[in-house]
Specification:
single chain, Lipocalin, Jelly Rolls, elongated, disordered N terminus
């Protein structure tokens, strides 16, 4: 047999003695080496997703290339997996649009090369998948071997968005306020009553706590309640002095920055804002949230004199009023991406929450003539989350848009994966769409995966049925299509397949298969 893997290192191989694993454990993204017919392609990524049939996985190899020619995405649906993570699939057929041919693909086990036996096996941390691909125009089958580890080292989320866990020095993990501020005014404003843990959590939260912010008087000046995942610099008694009073993120400021590599679509949070005069109609009564995704550079909020156009990749901002009942509200704020920095890689994210949009601002604050009682602006925060949309915005057959109902579209003709041009587009900024064909059930799937899949393990799934489809035994679908207006932004429902179960997610609100809200 022709030796095709002689450049592989045996140390990269998945051990033959593996522990029992579940589909949920092995699903995710893997980075590693791809060997195609003896040619090495380092630093490639594959995705493993739960199959729609029990004890199966779906394999996705994006942008498959052979001999400098693009053959498209390799998507193998419902590959059987045993309890030890061994994958087996024989005689699967896949139409490769790029060469206008149907290929026969096998997931190979037991191939011996150079005294080494190669099997297709996955664990919670490693993946080794060997395919043979045969097509009429290929002189011999192509052997494709992927060998890699779970994708790691990138962060796409905020730390402790629910403000949970033990607070150290009056601060929760991932968040900071005046207690750890720097600057010459620290001794005058440092207090434990401006940022505290609270059990007043938002409705439906699975957590136990929220964060409480309060404004404060120091040296006859009003300081807004302020928290950030960066650090506060308090350098002036004049509240609106951006050169000295600001929150900042600095790559060298260990412990007071959040490394970040994502391109989220929006940030969602819950807030209960109570201005001092309890008057939502007062124009000065607006709290503020500001989030900035930056390059590997120092950034401060508010910005002092200077040009930050090459530093800011994206930002999300909202100034919001209390509601009539002074109760909890959910806010969804879209990110606006900066064209001048769009080619640069995200490195950090800085989030700031304050009790008022204006430094030192807010409503009336005292009662009494002699012994004044100060009434302060207060703000509760809970469940801050970055959203990566995984919805599908458009699916076409021969350039004609197809309408989905409850996650399923139906085509009147019999199943055919090669007699029409199928195309899908994702809704999110970084969403990738992959089309997979299921010849056994005579249907087509669309998988929508955002860039945080390696961390979140979540994605959306859609199905296209034909007149002769046999899909009764597949995982059921239920309504997820639709839009709503949240703070002026069109927000979509999303179908999410997590740990082998399908859920509906709208922002950070989840529903089970029966439509019951679960968090």
């Amino acid at each position: 047999m022709k030796k095709i893997f002689f450049t592989l290192l045996a140390g990269l191989m998945v051990s033959a003695q593996v522990m029992a694993v579940s589909v949920a454990e092995v699903c995710g993204q893997y980075n590693g080496n791809l060997n195609i017919g003896g040619q090495q392609y380092p630093n490639k990524t594959i995705c493993l997703l739960p199959g729609t049939v029990q004890n199966t996985v779906t394999f996705v190899l994006p942008d498959f290339t052979y001999n400098a020619g693009k053959l498209g995405d390799i998507v193998l649906t419902n590959i059987p997996m045993d309890a030890n993570g061994k994958l087996t699939l024989e005689g699967a057929t896949l139409y490769l649009d790029a060469i206008d041919e149907r290929a026969t693909i096998n997931v190979v086990n037991g191939l011996e090369e150079g005294g080494v036996v190669y099997n297709s096996i996955v664990t919670a941390t490693q993946a080794q998948v060997l395919l043979s691909i045969a097509a009429p125009s290929l002189p011999e089958p192509i052997f494709v071997l992927f060998n890699g580890n779970t994708a790691a080292g990138k962060n796409y989320a905020l730390t402790n968005g629910g403000f949970e866990g033990s607070w150290t020095n009056y601060e929760p993990k991932g968040w900071h306020s005046f207690w750890t501020a720097t600057g010459v005014m620290v001794d005058f404003i440092q207090a434990n009553d401006q940022f505290m843990q609270s059990t007043n959590k938002r409705p439906g939260s699975k957590g136990s706590y929220s964060a409480f912010l309060s404004s404060k008087f120091a040296l006859s000046a009003k300081a807004n309640g302020n928290c950030t995942n960066g650090q506060i610099n308090a350098g002036s008694s004049t509240a609106d002095d951006p050169a000295n009073n600001f929150n900042f993120s600095d790559p060298t400021n260990t412990g007071y920055n959040t490394a970040f590599q994502g391109h989220p679509d929006s940030i969602v949070f819950w807030a209960q804002y109570i201005p001092a005069d309890k008057n939502p109609g007062n124009a000065v009564n607006k709290a503020r949230m500001h989030t900035v995704i930056t390059t590997n550079a120092r950034y401060q909020d508010p910005e002092a004199d200077g040009d930050y156009s090459q530093v800011k990749i994206a930002e999300a901002t909202i100034n919001y009023a209390a509601n009539a009942s002074m109760g909890w509200q959910r806010f969804s704020v879209p990110f606006e991406y900066n064209a001048q920095a769009q080619s640069k890689d995200p490195a950090y994210i800085l989030v700031t929450f304050t009790t008022n949009m204006t430094p030192g601002g807010g409503s009336s604050y005292s009662t009494g003539q002699v012994n004044k009682v100060y009434v302060l602006d207060t703000l509760y925060l809970d469940d801050v989350q970055l959203i990566y949309s995984r919805a599908m915005s458009k699916f076409t057959v021969n350039d004609q848009a197809i309408r989905f109902t409850q996650g399923v579209a139906t085509i009147g003709s019999n199943y055919c994966d090669s007699c029409a041009a199928y195309a899908a587009q994702g809704y999110g900024k970084t969403a990738q769409t992959f089309i997979g064909c299921d010849a056994t059930h005579k249907c087509i799937y669309v998988y929508v995966i955002a860039e945080d899949y390696s961390q979140s393990k979540q994605y959306s799934l859609y199905r296209i049925d034909f007149a002769d489809s046999q899909t009764d035994d597949l995982t059921p679908f239920f309504p997820e299509e639709g839009v709503e207006k949240v703070q002026g932004r069109t927000e979509r429902f999303e179908k999410v397949l997590l740990n082998g179960q399908i859920y509906i997610r709208r922002g950070d609100v989840w529903y089970n298969i029966n439509g019951t809200r679960i968090r």
